[in-house]
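--- STAGE predict ---
source: upstream dedup step, 1 unique chain passed
mode: sequence only
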Amino acid sequence: MKSGDATPQPDLQWGIVGPGTIARKFARDLRVATGGRLRAVASRKLHRARAFADEFGAELAFDNIQALADDPSVDIVYISTPHNAHFAAAKLLLESGKPVLCEKPLTVNARQARELIAVSRFKGVFLMEAMWTRCLPVYAQIRRWLNDGLIGRPRNVFSGFCIHAQRNPANRWYNPALAGGALLDLGVYNLAVSQLVMGRQPEQVTATAKLAVTGVDELLAATLRYAHGGVAQFVCGLSSTFDNSLVIGGDKGFIRVPANFIHGTEATLTVEEFTEGFSMQQRGEGFEYEIEEAMRCLRIGTIESPLMPHADTLATMEAMDEIRRQIGLLYPDEQL
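--- STAGE serialize ---
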């Protein structure tokens, strides 16, 4: 090492709560990310935690979250449980002083999100919603185009996120007990990107939906109107395929992210006859960027990320609460 070079920092030690499908993607990308490694896994069933830990090289496996929270060797925890379990897990960890990266949506509703943010601020402990899309390099480029005013003032945003999911009442998409439905699972991405572009809360939200036999939203469309005259529209659903692109229109030009905008690796800026493209190959499956952002924040001692600040998470949750109020969707034991 040359004189004056900074001393390399030790890897941050991660814990995972909920070793399911999304956690596997996270664990794979943790191997790609710089500066962290998997230390511990917690699940309600110890054999699941142990099998996951063995597969991904973690030393510790627990059958309860409190044991993970109490382990001093774990620096930060990723929560990937079903939606309905996010709040309790995150609250326990934050109150125990453990930094948290929680899978989207942060909670089921805005009331829960406010409480977690309050605990984070009171304890001075890092909390971030794992909105991985907003951490991708393509969205850093989009921010630069927007900040440079290349499309002028953003006037409209249109996006779609629809998949054709199996109509199984037991799976997380169609199960109200797991806070299922298109909005919380898919539409949260549309809202988070609209929030990124518009930079403020909407003053009016209008929504319509087709509900499944289980009572969750199967197909939903919403329009958000903003005080400066901008409009964002999106459609999300579990019963159809779609191109899942994103278009941001301004009074000078527009930006397009082609199908599937949540995995975006390329974008195009068009201003009159001028076109500029951006593309970047991801190092992993896309989670590596949110992992590195969370670790960057932890190392500098901040309790929230500028890429997904608490205010943006809360604005998205409030919009989803209003949408669900309009379509008549309440989850078990929930009061909005």
